[in-house]
Amino acid sequence: MRRLLLLIGIAFLVFSCAEEEPVRTDENLIQNLSFGQWRISSFLLNGVNQTSDFDGKNFVFYPSGQSEVFRGTQLLGQGTWSTTVLTFSPDSEFEILNGEWFQIHIVLNQIKIVKSEQDSTKELLLEKL
Predict the structure, then answer these.
(1) Which of 1, 46, 111, 116 has the highest Cβ tally under 10 A?
(2) CATH top-level class for 23-128?
């Protein structure tokens, strides 16, 4: 009886262990981000939803470090990126996205990054089109 309980306990432990979350690396981010177009499905500034500012705008992140924003085929803006650093010109409507971002969640078609500063917190969720 003790053996049976021990075996049941071991089986429970083995099969109830959750899979570990995949390791988030810059390489994973670069590989995911630099293929295809992305849209901002959520943008929060200090908890306030500002996603609508980016409706209909698609982002392309090239392996060369260039980034572009399109509405359909119309080019709206250009910038650069490096792992999780975005830089658009200061007079651009996309300037709010400038700065260093930290990875929170990466899966094949979704990337969540966060940027915290002294006076603000920004959360950005990108979804692959």
Answers:
(1) 111
(2) mainly beta
